[in-house]
């Protein structure tokens, strides 16, 4: 007698878009999630390319909101192919710019450990820019919808012309 099984067969995990782009082996080594706004607003934030890369490396160590990253300067220097002193200078610039705040860490009898890097400054700066970038994105969507309507491009040009005259 064949009884029906209550066991539901497991489906193989669907291939994620990231795996389709980069390959599963590459993605299995880890990934970081950062908002695209950090790239779109880089110039507005006043970040040099190297400062941005330092922030991205710090973000790679930041997995939980409540536990800020704490890589050593040596680890950052090795990853980036720079000297520890150069990393120190970039961290100082980022701190003076209000992007990060260094917090000393101590382990009792072992003494000082690598600093923790509070990223709240960067988060707050991005939040301040978000409304402007959102407005432009929403306007672009609306213009795309309008241009699809009869007489759309002429209507958009007229609107832009009227706005310029004001």
Q: Which homologous superfamily in CATH is the superfamily of the domain at 17-130?
A: Winged helix-like DNA-binding domain superfamily/Winged helix DNA-binding domain
CATH topology of the domain at 17-130: Arc Repressor Mutant, subunit A
Largest sheet: 2 strands, antiparallel
| Secondary-structure element string | HHHHHHHEEHH
| Highest CATH level, the class of the domain at 17-130 | Mainly Alpha
What's the CATH architecture name of the domain at 17-130? Orthogonal Bundle
Mean of residue pLDDT values: 87
Give me the side-by-side strand order of the main sheet. Answer: 1-2
Rg result: 24 Å
- Portion of residues in beta strands equals 5-15%
In whole angstroms, how far apart are the ends? Answer: 84 Å
DSSP strand tally? 2
**Structure classification:** mainly alpha
Which stretches are low in confidence, meaning pLDDT under 50 for 5 or more residues running? Answer: none
Global shape: flat
**Residue share in helices?**
55-70%
User: What is the count of DSSP helices, taking H or I runs of 4+ residues?
Assistant: 9
